[in-house]
Amino acid sequence: MQKNQGSNGKRNRSLRRLAMAAVLVAVLGGAGIAAANWFGRQESAPVATVTVTRGDVERTVTALGKIKPKDYVDVGTQVSGQLEKVHVEIGDKVKQGDLIAEIDPTVYETRVRTGHANLDNLRALLVQQQAEAELAERQLERNRALLKEKAISRETVETDEAALKVAQAKVKATQAQIRASEATLAGDQANLGYTKILAPMSGTVVSQTSLEGQTVNAAQQAPVIVRVANLETMTVWAQVAEADVTKVKTGMPAWFTTLGDSERRWQGTVRQVMPTPETVNDVVLYNVLVDVDNSEQLLMTDMTVQVFFVLEQAKDAPVVPLSALRALPGKGPDVYEARVLTARGIERRTVTVEVASRTNAAIRDGLAIGDKVVVAQPAGGDAAPEGGRRRGMGPRL
């Protein structure tokens, strides 16, 4: 009986070993099949590529700015008084010399009339004094003749000489008073003319500060009536950060877009880089002025714009995304490596970049239009079939 139990135990242990071996073979077989399927998918996965196309690439410095008229003038008054009439409204177009406004001229007309009267009085006095001087001169000549015949004393002749000098001095003094009165009258006439305020330039009335009936005082500073601006040419005041301002030069091409129309590019040229900065929230910014034609009258004062200063540009060149290239350390700043998909497989090429923006690169040599460049796969994606290894192709920073 014990012998039979021992035999049964041996058979049970043998069966258990056989079962465990079968399970192990099944697990290994399943793992092998899964691995084969995974590697098969990897070998058959498509390669992500981009096609080299023809296009333009720019390297730029960007900034925000405001639009202002290039030429404008604040039209004020040089005399004080009540603003009697304003002949223009905001938006009106005026030409140089057009009447803008009028100051009450009563006080200045009175001064001019008084000046004319004073001048007439002095001129009449001058005629009288000139006649007296001529009489004194003839009297002196007669007495000198009588003195030669000793019919008159020398003292009488000397008295006549003094009287002639006094008469001539009075004439000169009156002549000086006339010149002073003429100058005063000219000033009063000018002030009377200033009561009519004329447009100093052609343009558009863009603002009005003073209203009809308001009393303006020009004693300390010229009060502004309206502002006239030439809206045919506008200027962008772009604020460029101190890290970029050294790259911006006078005469450099620039373009900008407005908030209302981000698709249209307005072209301009840098006119001036202002040397004195402004500090906004501890950020140092320099104003750069860009002139732009506004003959269509679509640009308005104080519009917000985004400006792009063109540092370099390549036109009609082979273009590829910068992310499809890999920098080659030690080969130079413009030398990259590209992986090109060909009929023979993936081919590595050294390419030279002419101009690179933040996203695209214009190729000088190494790639042609139509080439398919392999791009880096995203993390967790299928790897390109290049010896089963992945290699980063991100842009050089």
CATH superfamily of the domain at 62-69 and 230-312: Efflux pump adaptor protein, beta barrel domain
Extract low-pLDDT stretches. 1-5, 38-44, 379-397
Q: What series of H and E elements makes up the topology?
A: HEEEEEHHEEEEEEEEEEEEEE
What would you say the CATH architecture of the domain at 62-69 and 230-312 is? Beta Barrel
Radius of gyration based on Cα positions: 48 Å
Beta-strand percent range: 35-45%
Number of helices: 3
- Specify the biggest β-sheet: 6 strands, antiparallel, barrel
Strand neighbour order, sheet with most strands: 2-9-13-11-10-14
Principal-axis shape equals: rod-shaped
Give the mean pLDDT. Answer: 85
Assembly context of the chains = single chain
Give the number of DSSP strands: 19
- State the name of the first-level CATH class of the domain at 62-69 and 230-312: Mainly Beta
Tell me the span between the first and last alpha carbons: 86 Å
